[in-house]
Amino acid sequence: MANLFCKTCGSLLRPRKTPYGNWMSCPDGHSQPEINQDGTVVIKNTPAKIVEVADDTNLLAVHDHPCKKCGHNKAELLEIMPFYSDEDNTFRMKCGKCGAIEQLEGKTT
Ligand SMILES: [Zn+2]
Ligand SMILES: [Zn+2]
Question: How far is the CA of 36 from the centre of ligand 1 (A)?
Fold first, then answer.
């Protein structure tokens, strides 16, 4: 393998351990996004962190409803259709944070 140099500053790259695997990295910490070594997975701006955020926030949880379990004040409104036509629809609030489901009392119409 030819020597690899930092694309930013030209320093000789050194092997480095990262949480994603071992790869060559600049001693000054410049990232080398184009390097793909033998079997090493190159992480290009992984969306891992973005995914975490998306998991934590339910985009459908737009209704003001304090969760009894965790105190989060936004919940998703779930409407469950009745089995029989003479029954009212059932509404439930699903916590946007912990996912706890709470059935609403009484009629909502
Ligand atoms: Zn560098
Ligand atoms: Zn909750």
Answer: 17
SS percent in the chain: helix, strand, coil, step 5:
10, 30, 65
In the reported structure, the alpha carbon of residue 52 is separated from the centroid of ligand 2 by a whole-number distance in angstroms of: 17
User: Alpha-carbon distance 24 to 6, whole Å?
Assistant: 9
Q: Which fold has domain 56-103?
A: N-terminal domain of TfIIb (2.20.25)
For the chain, the structural domain boundaries read: 14-46, 56-103
The model's pTM is 0.42
pLDDT per residue as tens digits for the range 39-54: 555 556 555 554 444 4
Cα(74) to centroid(ligand 2), Å: 9
